[in-house]
TrEMBL record:
<dbReference type="Pfam" id="PF00348">
    <property type="entry name" value="polyprenyl_synt"/>
</dbReference>
<dbReference type="GO" id="GO:0005737">
    <property type="term" value="C:cytoplasm"/>
</dbReference>
<keyword id="KW-0808">Transferase</keyword>
<keyword id="KW-0460">Magnesium</keyword>
<dbReference type="GO" id="GO:0016114">
    <property type="term" value="P:terpenoid biosynthetic process"/>
</dbReference>
<dbReference type="GO" id="GO:0046872">
    <property type="term" value="F:metal ion binding"/>
</dbReference>
<keyword id="KW-0414">Isoprene biosynthesis</keyword>
<dbReference type="InterPro" id="IPR033749">
    <property type="entry name" value="Polyprenyl_synt_CS"/>
</dbReference>
<dbReference type="InterPro" id="IPR053378">
    <property type="entry name" value="Prenyl_diphosphate_synthase"/>
</dbReference>
<dbReference type="InterPro" id="IPR008949">
    <property type="entry name" value="Isoprenoid_synthase_dom_sf"/>
</dbReference>
<dbReference type="GO" id="GO:0004337">
    <property type="term" value="F:(2E,6E)-farnesyl diphosphate synthase activity"/>
</dbReference>
<dbReference type="InterPro" id="IPR000092">
    <property type="entry name" value="Polyprenyl_synt"/>
</dbReference>
<comment type="similarity">
    <text>Belongs to the FPP/GGPP synthase family.</text>
</comment>
<protein>
    <recommendedName>
        <fullName>Farnesyl diphosphate synthase</fullName>
        <ecNumber>2.5.1.10</ecNumber>
    </recommendedName>
</protein>
<keyword id="KW-0479">Metal-binding</keyword>
């Protein structure tokens, strides 16, 4: 199976499971279910949950136990996009070619749909930890995976990065602040996806360290690649990016370096099937759109 075929297959698995969550979700608050589903199914690539599932499968040979955590991660990512698009944040009218949540449902429902997805993510992780822990080891690894995802989503992760991003609109930031923003806003959830999948799969501490490096490399490379692809648009609005401090050639070299480092971090798993993680690292960091 080619990389793209496998990505498409895993997207179907994730979408089917996400749809199942909303079966029979009715009641006086039905509008919030509609708003949550609207943003969940507007063409997301599902990269984070896919990485979570495949890192778990690489370690244990199966990703079944990791599915609820993959769904939770996608919900957290989607909530962040809903809130990013709000008039008080990035004030975007479209995402992935479709009207943003607040344009369809209004600002109040958009805020609540983001809140609903975030809360439901934690409900799912906690419920599955309680229901499917067969022993203390299972219980502990599910809690560790939940902690990894929670921290990456919070003030030391995605939210912290978003704060720096907002502040950068009104005041200049230096290259160190920009790197912090990229590491937190973009790379943190990608890193958490790979690490939490490894934890659920039963990876040891050394393996987790290597997965963390892998996730951070592709997360940073992914963002710098975005900067390269959006160079003309970003310069037109005077947006601070990696290219504000580095030449285009340096940016391309950095992406290549991060791609190689990501691949090197997988060498410890040479006895496992690492093909997918190798290929998707190159695909994400070297994509053309």
């Amino acid at each position: 199976m080619s990389l793209i075929d496998e990505i498409d297959h895993l997207k179907e698995v994730i979408d089917d499971e996400l749809n199942r969550i909303f079966v029979n979700k009715t009641g006086y608050q039905e509008k919030i279910f509609q708003a949550m589903k609207y943003s969940l199914f507007t063409g997301g690539k599902r990269i984070r949950p896919i990485l979570l599932l495949k890192s778990c499968e690489m370690i244990s040979g199966s990703y079944d136990e990791a599915i609820p955590f993959a769904l939770a991660l996608e919900m957290i990512h989607t909530y962040s996009l809903i809130h990013d698009d709000l008039p008080s944040m990035d004030d975007d009218d479209f995402r992935r070619g479709k009207p943003t949540n607040h344009k369809i449902f209004g600002e109040a429902i958009a805020i609540l749909s983001g809140d609903g997805l975030l809360n439901l993510a934690y409900e799912i992780m906690i419920e599955n930890t309680i229901l499917f822990s067969k022993n203390r080891e299972d219980y502990y690894k599910f809690l560790l995976a939940s902690k990894e995802i929670s921290k990456a989503s919070g003030i030391d992760g995605m939210i912290g990065g978003q704060v720096v991003d907002i502040l950068s609109d009104s005041e200049s930031i230096d290259s160190l602040e920009l790197e912090f923003m990229y590491r937190c806003k973009t790379a943190a959830l990608i890193e958490a996806a790979v690490v939490s999948g490894g934890i659920i799969g039963g990876a040891n501490e050394i393996e987790i360290d290597n997965l963390r490096k892998y996730g951070r490399c592709i997360g940073l490379g992914y963002q710098i690649r975005d900067d390269i692809l959006d160079i003309d648009e970003d310069r037109a609005i005077n947006k601070t990016t990696y290219l504000s401090f580095n030449s285009l050639e340096t940016a391309k070299e950095k992406v290549e370096y991060l791609s190689k480092e990501a691949k090197l971090s997988l060498e410890i798993f040479k006895d496992n099937n690492i093909t997918f993680l190798e290929e998707i690292a190159y695909y994400l960091i070297n994509r053309n759109k």
